[in-house]
Every structure is written in C-alpha cells, then in structure tokens.
Amino acid sequence: MDLEQTATQEGDPDNGADTTFSIRVARNGKIRALVKKALEFFQANPDRPLVLYSSPSEISASTIPKLISVVEIIKREYLKGYPVGLHQFNQLLFEERSQVPVEGKNRASALLLALEGSSQCVPPQ
Fold first, then answer.
1. Does residue 33 form part of some domain?
2. Range of the domain at 37
3. Whether pTM exceeds 0.70
4. Where is this region: Disordered (predicted)?
C-alpha cells in the first residue's frame, strides 16, 4: 500500500498535547485504501485528530477532487457506527510563485517592469 503517513507532535507531550496523524492523498493513491486507513485510525484512536492533505501545488489541483471524495466517504461510513463526535475543519492554502522578484513594490509595478525592455518586438513603422 503506497500511503504516506506521518505523525506530527503538536505542543509539549508532557502537557497532554495530542499527536496529530496525517494521511497525504496522492494522485496514485487508491480511494478505498485511504478510506480504510482513516477508518482504522478512528477505531483505534477515537479521541485523536486526523489530517488529510494534498500537496505539492503542481499536482494538488488534480488531487483535490480525490481528497474531497475521500473525506465525504469517511464521513458517511464513520457516521454509520457513531452518530456524533465527528467534526470537519477545512483549510485551503496556496503558494504564489513569481518569476519577477518583488522588492518593496506592488505586483502591478513588478509586472510593468518585467514587460518593458529592449528585447521586446517592435512593430515595423
């Protein structure tokens, strides 16, 4: 099974901080395997949070629909056995990439700077 799973520690473990378990939804991951792993985690750890995420940004556009499907199936299957206790929190993060370094200027000025120059084609007069 090709699932990337990570356990990240949040806070100080001596103060009773929760360990968050993460499952990365990849393009080649099978929905059935992801749902099974998440439901097994919830059965073994009913009081711990589970994070499902998709990255990197180049391919995340193709994995976001799969991520949504996995979450909806997990919710449906989980609520069959437990009528309460499931909370969903959504967060969308993005990365802005730019070829032109912007140093203290706004984006419009940076674009104008990138578009001007002597290498631009000049139409014949």
1. yes
2. 4-96
3. no
4. 1-20
